[in-house]
Design a protein that fits this description.
The complex is a heterodimer. Chain A has helices spanning 18-35, 37-57, 62-84, 86-95, 97-103, 108-137, 142-169, 176-203, 209-240. By secondary structure, chain A is mostly helical. Classes of the chains: A mainly alpha, B mainly alpha. Chains A and B meet through helix 7, helix 8 and helix 9 of A and helix 5 and helix 6 of B. Chain A: InterPro entries: Cyt_c_biogenesis_CcmB, Cyt_c_CcmB_bac.
Chain lengths: 241, 247
């Protein structure tokens, strides 16, 4: 065989770098979401309705709401993030986009990170923005509302990131929704404890910088580890189907 | 060393080893556990504060001890599953997860029974109780995921990922629950902490922990054997084994 007659095989270089790929995935998810606006609105409506259930079901008294308002809002936000997680990979799984993402030369965990960020921008962030209104409705004072928004701002990305692992693990299963909650709720407990604990500490006049720093540490830990776990889980789920 | 490693991966080889090991584990476990329990329940001295009610410790502590270490064992096996794809590792995870669930429940239940005379209530949202409850959820999640995925290879690997995520979270959950509890109520229940007990109590406790470990080993072998037979039912050695057993 004549080696010189053939050009050496070069590895195909990918046209775009990892960061560009992340931006592309992120922008695509945002664009798709804005074409189905009702899906964006649903978690927010759910959030408001769950919060409404507490005064109706437990007590509308100002003293009770003042004391438990932060907890109620946190639990409601947690549940509505949980509810929205099913959409994170589902549509892409159904139409085959996910397979193409896995086949990309860019590392899968980066693409998942981009998808998760888009998920947070589309569900977590609106929840945070809605919180002041609901905070006033449950009679929290201004300082508590501010701290609550801050904890949700740090906490909801953690919820999205951990949730991505669960969504990836349960992808394509029959009872994915319930199973996802079963797997993920235990992992959400630390975030919930620190989220509500920070507001409680602030209400007692204690310094909250330490608590916020711990929540930030959760966020960093989830940012660095969760995409890897979600990528591994996604590969397993895709090989399953 | 590597030969040993490869052998360990072979279900058939393990089946033989388990058969030889199981009688010893069963006999040893029963003898040691019974010795520990009889000594603890009948002969160990009364507690000066709690009287006889403390004696449930000889069941409670071994169950709680094992419930926690089974999760750690599952995590180690999960790493082996993901890294080396060793068949036996996922058989092990699948076989012991329900055992861990039952023991976690048992430790919560005996804790409640112990709590009634000691604290005057079945349940308190104490840090330790709550983290055991969360451990119960983690076991439940792993088992539910395993049951939900039909393909056993993907099920094993998905459960392995979940168990590893859980094991990273266990210390975080533990510390946050401890912190949560101390925030809301200062530790009132010093009794939950292990008292510096005299030898006559400590030795039977150690024996019952050891005995339960041995029994767990026996049960794990038994459950793994069943799982191996199910998975390898199409292979020749399993057919020969079943045919030989039928005669």
């Amino acid at each position: 065989m004549n080696a010189e007659s053939r050009p050496a095989l070069k590895p195909v270089e990918s046209a775009i770098g990892p960061v560009q790929a992340m931006v592309a995935v992120f922008m695509r998810d945002v664009r798709v979401a804005f074409r189905q606006r009702q899906d964006l609105l649903n978690p927010l409506l759910f959030f408001i309705m769950v919060v409404t259930l507490f005064p109706l079901g437990v007590s509308p008294e100002v003293a009770f709401l003042k004391q438990s308002g932060a907890g109620i809002l946190w639990v409601a936000a947690l549940l509505s993030v949980l509810l929205s997680l099913d959409h994170l990979f589902r549509h892409d799984f159904d139409d085959g986009t996910l397979e193409q993402l896995i086949l990309q030369p860019q590392p899968l965990f980066l693409l998942i990170l981009a998808k998760t960020l888009a998920h947070w921008i589309l569900t977590g962030l609106p929840l945070v923005l809605l919180t002041p209104v609901l905070g006033i409705m449950v009679h929290l004072d201004g300082n508590s509302v501010a701290i609550l928004c801050l904890t949700l701002l740090i906490g909801t990305p953690v919820l999205s990131l951990i949730g991505a692992i669960g969504a990836a693990l349960t992808l394509g299963l029959r009872s994915a929704g319930v199973l996802l909650s079963l797997l993920i709720i235990p992992l959400y407990i630390p975030v919930l404890i620190f989220g509500t604990g920070t507001v409680a500490a602030a209400a007692e006049g204690a310094p909250v910088a330490g608590y916020l720093a711990l929540m930030g540490a959760f966020l960093v830990l989830a940012l660095t580890l969760a995409p890897f776990a979600a990528a591994a889980a996604l590969r397993i789920s895709m090989s399953n189907s | 060393m590597w030969q040993w490693f490869h052998k360990l991966g072979s279900p058939k080889w393990f089946y033989g080893i388990a058969n030889r090991l199981m009688p010893w584990l069963l006999a040893g476990g029963l003898i040691v556990l019974l010795a520990g329990l009889v000594w603890g329940l009948a002969f160990a001295p009364k507690d000066y504060l709690q009287g006889n009610s403390y004696r449930i410790i000889f069941i409670h502590v071994p169950a709680a001890f094992l419930a926690q270490s089974i999760y750690i064992m599952m995590a180690v096996a999960a790493v082996v599953t993901l890294v080396w794809r060793m068949k036996l590792a996922d058989v092990f995870v699948k076989a012991i997860a329900p055992v861990g669930l039952v023991l976690t429940f048992l430790s919560l239940f005996t804790g409640a029974v112990w709590g009634k005379p000691t604290w005057g209530t079945w349940w308190v949202w104490d840090a330790r109780l709550t983290s055991m409850l969360i451990l119960l959820f983690l076991y439940g999640g792993a088992i539910a995921l395993d049951r939900a995925i039909n393909d056993e290879k993907s099920a094993a690997r998905a459960v392995a990922v979940l168990v590893l995520v859980g094991v990273v979270n266990i210390p975080i959950i533990k510390y946050s629950v401890d912190w949560w509890n101390t925030l809301h109520q200062p530790a009132t229940f010093k009794l939950t902490e292990k008292p510096s007990m005299p030898m006559e109590m400590w030795v039977p406790l150690l024996l019952s922990v050891l005995g339960l470990y041995l029994l767990f080993g026996w049960l794990a072998c038994l459950r793994m054997k069943t799982e191996i037979l199910l998975r390898e039912q199409r292979t020749r050695w399993v057919r020969e084994l079943v045919l030989a057993g039928r005669k």
